[in-house]
Amino acid sequence: MNNIYEDSRNQIHPTAIISPFAKIGVGNIICAYAVINDDVEIGDNNEIGSFTVIGGKGEIRNGKNYKGKVKIGSRNLINHHVTIDQPLTGYTVVGNDNFIMTKSHIGHDVVISNNVTISSGANIGGHTMVFDHATIGLNAEIHQRKIIGSGAMIGMGASITKNVRPFSKVVGVNKVIGFNDYKVKELDISTEQLFLLISHFMQDFE
């Protein structure tokens, strides 16, 4: 990549702004004008796109004395113009092997598990939990404090104000249209495993 400063640990563009208090692993690519603030921990082999802001103060009315942390795992592709917010206390978490597309927003206290796809323009409200292998469609809106189950697929432009069961397909305003058959097949999940998974989480869903 042109104009990238290379050291023994990471490739960092000279225009990137990185707090001296941030903790960054190895093998990361941090592109032009990315901002990584205090209280951010980043693992290994991530790519962070241009103009992305990690650890900006969460949008909390009358929020003061932010002490929470943002934890990013490893092997994530975080594209340009993404925002991942710092909580007042506790953690905002992005796990491993996630694909986070341009102009998407991950609010304060959100937990993104592993192998999640978040499409361009998606907004995930604070305190939401998104479990493994879920897919969030283009410009989808997730209300705060919701649970998106493993393998769920949220359609383009959907408005989610209720919890979403594992491997459900949801479009429009909370409209469930069946199972995410593609993901079930991709992960080679049996009917019995699927039933057990849904039953295990049922108590958490509305």
Description:
- Helices cover 8% and strands 33% of the residues.
- It is globular and about 50 Å long.
- With 206 residues, it is mainly beta.
- The strands form 3 sheets. It has an 11-stranded mixed β-sheet with strand order 1-2-5-8-11-14-17-20-23-25-26, with no helix packed on it. Strands 3-6-9-12-15-18-21-24 form an 8-stranded parallel β-sheet, with no helix packed on it. A 7-stranded parallel β-sheet has the order 4-7-10-13-16-19-22, with no helix packed on it.
- The N and C termini lie far apart (47 Å).
- It contains 2 helices and 26 strands.
- The relative contact order is 0.09.
Which short descriptors sum up this protein?
globular, 11-stranded mixed sheet, 206 residues, 26 strands, 2 helices, mainly beta, 33% strand
CATH superfamily: Hexapeptide repeat proteins
| Individual helix count | 2
The main sheet comes to:
11 strands, mixed
Order of helices and strands: EEEEEEEEEEEEEEEEEEEEEEEEEEHH
